[in-house]
Here is the input.
Amino acid sequence: MVRPPPWTPGFTPDEADYNGQMDTNPNRARVTASRPGEHAVTVHIRPGDVVGVGHRNQQFPEFVWCAAEDGNHGWVAEAYLEMTGEKEAVAVREYSGKQLTVIEDEVLDVIELQGVWTLSRNSAGSQGWVPTAILEDAAAPAPARREQSLSPDSRRVRVVASCTSEQVQEIRFLAGESLTVGHRNQQHPAFVWCATADGHQGWVPEDYIEPGAEHDAVARRAYDSTHLTVGAGETLEVLDQVGDYLLCRTAAGIEGWVQTACVEEIAEER
Here is the structure.
C-alpha cells in the first residue's frame, strides 16, 4: 500500500516551470529519509516529441509507459502528454524520469507534484523525482536531528575492495504489496525472481515475502534492490544479511546492498 503524501505543495503543476524558472520564494521540502536514485536508463522527452503510449502504472496511475523516438522507454507523467491516437501522444512539456539521490535532512526546492512523486531540485541544481512520502514541509519546525553516525552496538564492516553499484534489474516495494514469484537464483539461492503489480522485476530475498497460492506472494517488509557504491576503507553499518549480500548503511545514511567479498568485519572494541 502506498502511503498518502504527508503534505501538499501550495501551488498547482501549471504554476511550476520544469526548466528552472521558479518564484523567488519556491515551496521547499525537507528529506526525512535518505534514498538513492534509480540507476536504470530513463526516458527524456521534449515538447513536440512523439511517443508511443502503453499501459498505465497500476501503483502510480498518474504515469503511463512510453517509448521515445530514441528508443528509450519508461514511465511518464500523463499530464506531460497530449494523446493524438489510441497509443500515440505528443509531449507538451519537457520531461525526464530521473530520480534524485537524496540525503536525510537535505532541503529541496519543490517544482511539481504528480501523484505520490514530487519533482524537486537540490542545492547543486540537479532535478529529479522523489517519493513524496519521504518529504515534509521545510517551513515546519525541524525535528531533532536523527543521528546518522553508526551505533556503537551495531554490526560494522570495513570495505576492503571498492565496489561499484551493480546495474541490477531494480525492484522496490512496500510491506503488504502483492508480488508474482518466479524462479530461484541458482548462484544466490536465497533470492527469487519477483515482479510487482506495476511491472518492475528483479531478485528479492525469499525471507522478505510471504508465499500465497501458486506464484502469488505478499511482501512481508519493504525492499529496495539498490546496490551501494563504496570505497576502500569506508565503514558501513550492517542492517541485514541475505546469503552473500549485506544490506548496509553508510555514514551519510544511504542504504543499499554490498557483497560480503568486498568487506571485512570490524572487531568490537572492549
In short: Residues 156-165+227-265 form a domain with the SH3 type barrels. fold (CATH 2.30.30.40). DSSP finds no helices and 24 strands in the chain.
